[in-house]
Amino acid sequence: MDIHRPRRFAVRALAHPTALADTLRIDLSKASLGVPLRVGAASGSVLVVGGLLGEFSLAGFAALGALVSAFCRADPYRVRFGRLLVLGVGLIVSLVCGAVLGALSANTWTEIAVLSVLGGIAALLIGALHITGPGAVVFVFGATGSAGFAGDFGDVGRVAVATGIGVVCGVVASLSPWVVDGVRRGFGVVRSWCSSRRTLRDARSFVASPSGIKEVGAEGAVSGGEEVGAEGDGPVYESVWACLSRRPHSDHVHTAARSVVAAGISGAVAVGVGLSHPLWASMGAVAAMQGVRYHRTVQRGIARLVGNVVGGVIAAVLLALPLGHWGAIAAIIVLQIIAEICAPWNYAITSTVVTPMALLMTALSVGLDPSIAVDRVLDTMLGVVIGIVIALLTVTRPDIDGILESTGVRHPRAGSGS
């Protein structure tokens, strides 16, 4: 393959066997159950409480806020806390922006423009903080939902409160093992303190005795003491402020700019061809652009296409069933847990599960019929394809290096060592 013509090389990489193989590969070594259960518990708790209060629509926004628990799953807890707070604030701002658009009855073009920029900002934020997880598409999805829900500025406030409650639940769920361990350690410290007081009291009684005085004189100290060594230095992590205050890395800026352009063009084309939900096309583009490198965009795009087609069929079946609000909530919780279990394994399977979950969550707020699944598939396919095209047209040398690495092709600049 001729890498001296980057775009032609990138086009050929689309048909390389590794592109499809990477999409279908399942990596069970990353399987876990703790994080999925915590994410499911966070989302499920706010959905159930919201349902019991009769606020099914707002419960969906609270569940979106609780999705912060799906981010930073590989980070140490002390590092995760600050990042989750920033993400939570970002989610609230995103949903409020969407709700304001709805309250102002903004036209479709304004919504596309604002949400495209919002997707780019979210991508830049996630990149700057080195955050793993669902990505910027969650911000755009939430803003899209709140734009369709809000009819006045009272709804804007309700969306903000519901999302904030969900964020708090999500942060608590994500950090729950750390909190529980801290409480356990706290009880241990109290027990040690009580025990040490008893030991000290016994030691004083012993020293005051004639035999104790003789032993202290011989040894110079009461036996039983133990010197505690200094803690070893642990790994150093950058603070949230350090990450956000420095100049953004060019790769992150490039990815954010790609996302804005791809989302905007996708929404505009969707309007031009008469699709019913152009913002879903923008979401599809943002989802495809979550890979920093071109080959990741291709892999994500193929996986998203496969997942949306299969997931659309599942969604149509679920929407056709008389689930009711509580049945939809139960299905959302189950699908959420399955999606989080599959997320480290394979993105295509995850997308297959996320598609019906997202549509059911939307149905809680505005109500949907089975035909909406077809619209979802078409809009998302359009967005993903345009996202890949934009990535192709803006391919860079690091993108080419990423393709070479993923395909196993030897770089022509690598000479034989002598």
What features would you highlight for this structure?
2 domains, single chain, 418 residues, mainly alpha
What order do the helices and strands come in, and which of them pair?
Elements: H1 6-14, H2 17-24, H3 34-52, H4 56-66, H5 77-103, H6 108-128, H7 137-149, H8 153-208, H9 210-219, H10 240-245, H11 250-272, H12 278-288, H13 294-320, H14 324-342, H15 347-366, H16 372-393, H17 397-407
Describe the structure.
The protein has 418 residues and is mostly helical. The protein folds into two domains: 6-178 and 254-407, no CATH class; 183-218. Helix content is 75%, strand content 0%. It has 17 helices and no strands. It has helices spanning 6-14, 17-24, 34-52, 56-66, 77-103, 108-128, 137-149, 153-208, 210-219, 240-245, 250-272, 278-288, 294-320, 324-342, 347-366, 372-393, 397-407. Helix 2 crosses helix 13 and helix 13 (294-320) packs antiparallel against helix 16. The two termini are 26 Å apart. Residues 211-234 and 414-418 have low confidence and may be disordered.
Write a short abstract of this structure.
The chain is mostly helical and 418 residues long. 75% of the residues lie in helices and 0% in strands. The protein has two domains: 6-178 and 254-407, no CATH class; 183-218.
Q: Per the principal axes of the C-alpha atoms, what is the gross shape?
A: globular
Order of helices and strands: HHHHHHHHHHHHHHHHH
Over the alpha carbons, how many angstroms does the gyration radius reach?
A: 27 Å
Low-pLDDT runs: 211-234, 414-418
Percent in helix? over 70%
Question: Main β-sheet: number of strands, strand sense, barrel status?
Answer: none
Structural class: mainly alpha
Tell me the β content.
under 5%
Count structural domains. 2
Q: Termini distance?
A: 26 Å
Mean of residue pLDDT values? 82
Q: How many DSSP H or I helices?
A: 17
Number of strands: 0
